Amino acid sequence: MSGRVFHAPFIMDHEGFKLKAVVERKNKQIQLQHPEVISYSSIKDLLADEEIELVVVNTPNDTHVEFATMALLAGKHVLIEKPFAPTAKEAKSLFDLGRKVNRMVLPYHNRRFDSDFQSLHQVIQSGRVGKPIELHMRFDRFKSEIGVKKFKETKRAASGILYDLGSHLLDQVISIFGKPKSVTKILTKNRPRTRVDDYACLVLNYPQGLSVFITVSLLVALPQKSFVLHGLSGSFVKDRSDPQEEQLLGGGTPLDIDYGKEIQGREGILSEVQQDGRVLNELVVAPQGDYMQLFNAVFETIRLGKPYFVSEEQILWQLEILEPSR
Asked: Could you write out the DSSP letters of every residue in 122-154?
């Protein structure tokens, strides 16, 4: 699903890329939709293709480091899906190897380009809520049954809800506020027969009094507000409303006229306290979501040498928080 929904449509529609090949070890599907794309049966066969310059690693979480290492040693740049690696140490080894072989090692964090997160970011930057004091960010789903994807439900490196969904929210927080000064982490297992965490909460403490609460769960029947921000002079509340994943799953493309546009009625609410004590509420329309910006950044980093929007330092901070405590 990751390749079909989050990567292929953008590579196909971006003039700077050509989708040359994929690895499909069992079910051969790519050529049903894109007959010009080669379907290799093994990663080694794909890496032997000298025309390929960039490899997207979007395999099960615990294989990211192994396959990215293989690609780098084969002389390819790599774009690595979240979570980038199980540990900060392994991530550092990939960045070091990239420098050694003179190839780019790029983390894939598309959720920075969600319309709802962009809306939150703009409100914070505007200063209209004043100094941020408290921020709640949630990713709620309801999946009480054990899923069919074994790599997500088996106890192995980088498994569980915190790595799966928490990595999105943690990256978003770090992109705005940087490294927290302290972290409290809660992980629980609640579904019958589950072997991995299906609920997680992070409490991040920042200087100047900001507290950030990240919650991810597979057992929320009534999803709560995804972004709740309180500051010295106001608040901002926002549902998860970015339409891109749903549009792509439905067969849409990044070139569609309504791609990434928030549905009317899903606007955030900005509440500002006036000098006379009155509270004025305003609907805030989110900017258009656009995952193509990530692929623009990949192209510009590889071809033009521009700095990538996710830094090595940010990835190491993220994984230091996500990885199990020693």
From this structure: HHHHHTTT-SEEEEEEEEE-B--SPPS-HHHHS
If residue 321 lies in a helix (H) or strand (E), which one and from where to where? helix 312-322
Say yes or no: do domains 2-108 and 114-289 share a fold.
no
Cis peptide before 83 (omega within 30 of 0): yes
- Domains of the chain, residue spans: 2-108, 114-289
Q: Taking the domain 114-289, which CATH number applies?
A: 3.30.360.10
From CA 99, how far away is CA 291, in angstroms rounded?
27
- Residue 222, Cβ neighbours under 10 Å: how many? 6
In whole angstroms, give the CA distance from residue 264 to residue 151: 37
Over residues 112-159, the pLDDT tens digits come to 999 999 999 999 999 999 999 999 999 999 999 998 888 788 899 999
CATH 3.40.50.720 fits 2-108, yes or no: yes
107 CB neighbour count, 10 Å cutoff: 26
The first and second tokens of residue 110, run together, are 């598309």
- Which pLDDT tens digit goes with each residue over 185-231? 999 999 999 999 999 999 999 998 999 999 999 999 999 999 999 99
